[in-house]
Specification:
Distance between the termini: 23 Å
Shape: globular
Largest sheet: 2 strands, antiparallel
Helix content: over 70%
Length: about 400
Amino acid sequence: MKKNKFSFGLLIDLVIVFLFIEPIIVLGVNSQILSALYFISVYFLVKRRFYLDEKIIMFSFLVILISFLVFIWHQNINSYAVVLFRMITAVIIAHYLVLKYKGYNSLIIVSYSSLVHVVIILLQILLPGFKNVWFMVVQNTSAINLGQYTLSEVLIRSNGANGFLYADNGIIFCISAVILTFFSNKSSIVNKIVLVCGGLISGRSSFIVLIPFVYFEFYKKKIIYKFIFLVSIFVCLVTAMFYMSQFFPNYFKWISEPILNFIDGKSLSQSSDSTFRRHLFFFSDVYHNIIGYGIFSMDNSQYFSKALFPSDSGYMRLLTSGGLFQLGGYICSILYLYLITLKNTITTKTKKLFIFSLFYYSVVFLFSLKSQFIYSNFNFLMIFILYLLSRIKGK
């Protein structure tokens, strides 16, 4: 990282960012609360005059206002209130990182926080004793939130800080590799390969980012670098596939499904096709399409009680919560910040920030069709950092 030498304070910031992006429960305490308290405290130490960007305030105000109107209408404060808390925390963290760390180092810190998570995953896979010790200290929330079939279907995914690797994790890891490609000239290729491996372990959805990553990594690179990179990726993939075919055969069949289906002339992913058919829909009446059911929860029984399917899609969760009113308001607020970010960066001197922002937001809107990535901690943090950097770099 340029201009910010490695220090104990930087290490603490990096670990706390990880604990925000991937909240864990340690000894009954949620790390998300700890990260909020930490960054609010250090923000005041770094910046005596508390300052927040006016457009981020407007974005946050609109999202909170729309959400509370939905709560009032349904006379029920649902779990989306937790999302609002995460969003406010991300506002503080983004301002702190951009203020303290110069250049693009705020993005690089986010990337390295993901690397911390991948290292934990690899240690859990390679050293079962480490995994046992980890979950003696950290609560395995997957055992509470997920069914036994999901946990046993692909065993290698039953790892990670919380005990299970969702598709979101794979996207985060691969985006972190892209960040290093764009903004860190000194980052080792090993870091990027480790992040890509974490993405592949987490699910096939990571290919959405993995293919553009390979293109970005090759762009304007010397021939010898391209050769070394290709050989490294090939060796890692062959080794990983052999290892998985021997010790995780179900995962091997699952991740190779698109290739086998392509060879057989079938749909690339039958499970994904089924997911889109089941998880994207409108309600049968106009009223609920407009204002929703007031349900936003990880407890699927709340959806079943209203004869609703608990869709994994971030869009559908918002539609169920507050209908098109809440979904439209949230999407418009995101687009507002997105377009301003692009407007600020559409200059020669910020070309790479413009390209990365365009790439990142495309992934967000596409991937949120099948996941809740659009209001994840990682996404909140990224959109605020990208906007703040666009203001600084676009001047």
